[in-house]
Amino acid sequence: MIGIPAAYPAGRWQYRGSNDVMFTILSFRFAPELMVIVPLYTRRRAFMMVALPLVRPGIAASALLAFVFAWNNYVFPLILTGSRHTPVTVAVTRFLGGGGQAYYNLTAAAALIAALPPLLVALSIQRYLVRNLSFGAVKA
Fold first, then answer.
1. Cβ distance 105 to 92 under 8 Å?
2. Cα-trace Rg, the chain
3. DSSP label at residue 48
4. How many whole angstroms separate alpha carbon 44 and alpha carbon 118?
């Protein structure tokens, strides 16, 4: 309730140091504290050996979600793109036909083919998700 009314004037008004303030506010949202603090007080190798392995499952999960959300976008491309350049989600609906004839077999085949890239991405990063989610929960 407070964030949206506060974000509009913060983004529109320009004052001395406004870019620094906005970067500071955004940096608290997109980066965990550990990821910000460790590189400030240790060398690059310490970051690569300590912090990066800890955030790897989060990076894999957010990459998968970003890819799936971008891949499954339907409404904006339907409205904003032309008929020649459409993403796969919009192109699949062309097989349903606008003239009364629906080709369900072609629609199902196109939907199956369209589901393969997100599935392959998910399977390729699954080892990062499953192995590292329980990394800190088990004592040796």
1. no
2. 22
3. I
4. 33
Helix (H) or strand (E) holding 69: helix 52-71
Q: Rounded to the nearest 5 degrees, what angle is found at the Cα of 16, between the Cα atoms of 10 and 18? A: 30
**Counting Cβ atoms within 10 Å, is residue 113 exposed (0-12), middle (13-18) or buried (19+)?**
exposed
Please list the pLDDT of the chain residue by residue as tens digits (140 residues).
777 788 788 778 888 888 888 888 777 777 666 666 765 667 777 778 887 888 877 788 888 888 888 888 888 888 888 777 888 888 888 778 766 788 888 888 988 998 898 888 888 887 766 665 565 555 55
pTM of the entire structure? 0.52
